[in-house]
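Now read the record:
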Amino acid sequence: MPDWILLLPIVFPPLGALGLALLSARVSERVRFWLAPVFLILEIALLLFNIAPGTHRLVISNWQAAGFTIALQMDGITQLLALTMFVPLIALWLIAPPRAPFGLWPILVVSAALLLASAATPVTIYVAWTLLDLALFVWRIAHNIQRDQANHGFMLGALAGLIFFGGTSLITTRPAEGALLIGLALWARLGLFPFHGLYPAQGKDRSEVWFARGIPLLAASSVWLHWDTTLNLPVTAPLIGVLAGVVFVITTLWLWREEQPARAIDFSAAYTFAFVPLALAFGGDAATAFGLWLALSAALAIAWFEIALRWRAENRNRWARLIWFAGIFSLASIPLTPAFLGRLGLLVALTEYSQWVMLALIGVTSLFIFAPLWNFGFTLKGTEERAPTRAEYAGLIVLALFTGTLALAPMMIAHALAPAVGDAAERALDRVIRTNDLIGVIIGAIILLAPVIASYILRNMPRGLHPASASWEARLARALELDWLEQVIANVGLQISAAARSSITIAEENPTVWILLMSLWIAIFIIIAR
């Protein structure tokens, strides 16, 4: 098959959404309800259509003189991550139709995320990166989703994109510094501390969190998982280890004082997605499989949590707690969840690298991450109770079947994706199942399972022993949110803009200033040329 077929799942969402909008006005409400699932099924079919005969790569533009090549690829990793973007959307739609989920702006977010996940060169990544930030910004403004934070998120994304572009420019001359900048930029793309303001925390509608976080995070994970093939550089392990440790501590502090389950989803997702780059840094020859399984499980945890909140919002008390607990299990990566081999394999790899401080940090922070989540689950109920409809049960079954397939057939899926992923999955089995390091596996299993069990016992531990205004934990958490730093930067920016306006006023009154300015730039260019 020609390589241009990879464009079909990328182009179809905006064109299909336009046709869906035109068709919705001409059909009954019952038919309109099923148009969205049909739309998503067609998108999934186009993704699956790219499986044969393997990886597709399409070069759109090749500027060899400057090294700027715009190319897209659709391999097994991209396909699986893209499928995980759309399957939960079917479940969310069947359970409770979101507010305008297939309007222009949400579809632009999805299309930009697919473009980023399919990017095959650094320049393509940067272009798709910018488009995704722009789509998220316009979507937030159009839907009135945290509009006061929209500018902040857009500026963070633009800053991270410039850091990434600067890092790629240094690859050939200074690879160590380039890899360091790229790692920092990709860390920001995951929306992790100190770039936690990149994505909106929540919208007016619960399902909007999937567009705001679930889909962009899967696209960012795809860039991480293609690090070696796209950038041909090793992951900067020391930087990632330090950043991951900081995220584990700070997200635990934030979640421990949080009282809203919707924001608890954001913090727990940040905690889990930090394991993806950590797995790529320390996973060795099994890093790709570890990172892929961890990314899938973290995204599915967001979907389960979102469905539990929608279940409560519609007063469907039946199964609400079990749905929330399914999110906890996916987050904890216990056996029979998609990331079990990934999380346990990462812990075993950390023991091989003698990263005892990181292992202890993971164990302690996991305990204090899961304890509040258990507490939220037991208090999750609506004011009334009604039986779910068949469509709502169908949405639940769709997500359960998808999660079960990823959990029970990880090796078969890995070998079906690509030979490289299959080889990485075999190396993962060598670390966890076919291993000679029994001590490492036992230590990893203890760090994996003990915090989950202990957190269930400690779920009712009081989390607010002091008034919020006087608690040092609350003051520290507020300081780490970096709102004060944003205010300082905004004030500096206002002063710079005022000075610039004053300069322009002077230049307008005295044309000699323009002549001096042009002379200065000419002198700078002459110096650079020499």
Notes: The CA atoms of residues 143 and 275 lie 31 Å apart.
